Amino acid sequence: MSKKIALITGITGQDGAYLAEFLLAKGYEIHGIKRRASLFNTDRIDHLYEDPHQTDRRMILHYGDLTDATNLIRVLQQVQPDEVYNLAAQSHVQVSFETPEYTADVDALGAMRILEGIRLLGLENKTRFYQASTSELYGKVQETPQTEKTPFYPRSPYACAKLYAYWITVNYREAYNIYACNGILFNHESPIRGETFVTRKITRALSRIYLGLQECLYIGNLDALRDWGHARDYVEMQWLMLQQEAPDDFVIATGEQHSVREFISQAAKELGLAIQWKGEGVNERGLNMANGKTIVAVDPSYFRPTEVQTLLGDPTKANEKLGWSPKTSFSELVHEMVKVDLEEAKRDELVQRAGFRVNNRNE
Ligand code: NDP
Ligand code: GDR
Fold first, then answer.
1. Where are the domains of the chain?
2. Where does the NAD(P)-binding domain start and stop, copy by copy (predicted)?
């Protein structure tokens, strides 16, 4: 049997990198869409990189953008993929309040452009489509825990855009018989999570505080509750969803919930730091119990105009129909993230001691 071909949008992101690794190990030929940037932007997949001058490559990158329909159609036509994983997005909820139009263009219309490309090229019976849907769709939650049947109530421009993408995926499945699925994924993290999402921000900052490279972690809503899993476990599900007899939509979650405050305390524990919480609301602080210094402080600039206060997924359907269950526990996830960020911080400390500048961004 000839090898399967997958096209991954968002291959340079967290999930794209894990999925690329996963599909290569399965013997796929993979194609990824990367954006033109003024610097190299392929850090997360550089270990998979194959020299473009080499013949017989199994990983090929194409320049492109989800806002550019002609580009997407040309790439689809050239690649003729068996599977498309649409992971590309302006994926930051808070940033979406500042860039609502762009977020809608990429996250909502981007999905439609790919589906329409599949249709225009007559690939409806060949190409299977995965849409990276999100627990943010539940927003102001109507039911706990959330299942595939829980009503949506988006609370950000990001979630509103993803709502369109969710329904256009369902619509193209029903209208044109395309094998198209939504994975409604709850938050998933890893050592290669973007540095401005809360988990990575915490593990990175606390590691740097531990080594004296940073004084304080400035944080937003400490009470937000999330169902955090590991990205490595979740990409397996993205693939599994495209291997079934019929397309369907699935919630992917751990079924366990923790607050941002708990995440901080757990990460601090990993570093041997004990945190004492003092004060309330915007005045709440986390003190290092060893020396009484404030190492965590609330900064209201991280509050969102409309917040998603609580999310908890029920992955029963994925478990029963796909035999999937998450492998990594909350404490293992935090452990792995802290371990890698501590190594990075140690490297930065050496570089700084040798008189060179390091990236001290703290946002
Ligand atoms: P990342 O932010 O790490 O990656 C996003 C990817 O999309 C990057 O490769 C980025 O490229 C690319 N991208 C952004 N804008 C465009 C554009 N206009 N055209 C083409 N590519 C673009 O996200 P994750 O890997 O964490 O998430 C993957 C997908 O899953 C996203 O759609 C996200 O919304 C969704 N999701 C994520 C969850 C999570 O907890 N991680 C949970 C539920 C859904 P570049 O590297 O150049 O910036
Ligand atoms: P989220 O992830 O918005 O759930 O979207 P994020 O890590 O940004 O926020 C989680 C919760 O933590 C609170 N929070 C902070 N968040 C950030 N980024 N920075 C802070 O300083 C901070 N302090 C508190 C937030 O208010 C929020 O309640 C992620 C993205 O990956 C989406 O693309 C994806 O769809 C969803 O997860 C599921």
1. 5-185, 198-225+258-305+329-354
2. 7-337
Distance 186 CA to ligand 1 centre (A): 14
With 70 as the cut, is the pLDDT of residue 273 above it?
A: yes
Q: Which atom of ligand 1 is nearest to the CA of 135?
A: 43
Provide ipTM, 2 decimals. 0.99
Residue 237 amino acid letter: M
Q: With 0-12 CB in 10 A as exposed, 13-18 as middle and 19+ as buried, what is 345? A: buried
Q: In the chain, helix, strand, coil percent, each to 5?
A: 40, 15, 40
At a CB cut-off of 8 Å and minimum separation 6, what does 316 contact? 147
Average pLDDT, stretch 7-23? 98
Q: How far is the CA of 20 from the centre of ligand 1 (A)?
A: 14
Architecture of the domain defined by 198-225+258-305+329-354: Alpha-Beta Complex (3.90)
**CA of residue 193 to ligand 2 center, whole Å:** 12
Which atom belonging to ligand 1 lies closest to the Cα atom of 136?
43
Give the Å distances, CA to CA, from 21 to 8, 134, 240. Answer: 12, 22, 15
Amino acid at 156: S
Tell me which H or E stretch contains 110. helix 110-120
Q: Angle formed by the axes of helices 330-353 and 198-210, to 10°?
A: 50
- 3-class DSSP state of 253: coil
> What per-residue confidence (pLDDT) applies to 1?
66
How many percent of the chain have pLDDT more than 70?
100
Ligand lying nearest the CA atom of residue 132: 1
Q: What size, in residues, is the chain?
A: 363
Q: List phi, psi (to 5°) of 304.
A: -100, 150
* Fold classification of 5-185 (topology level): Rossmann fold (3.40.50)
Ligand 1, atom 20: nearest CA belongs to which residue?
Answer: 65
205 lines ligand 2 (CB under 6 A): no
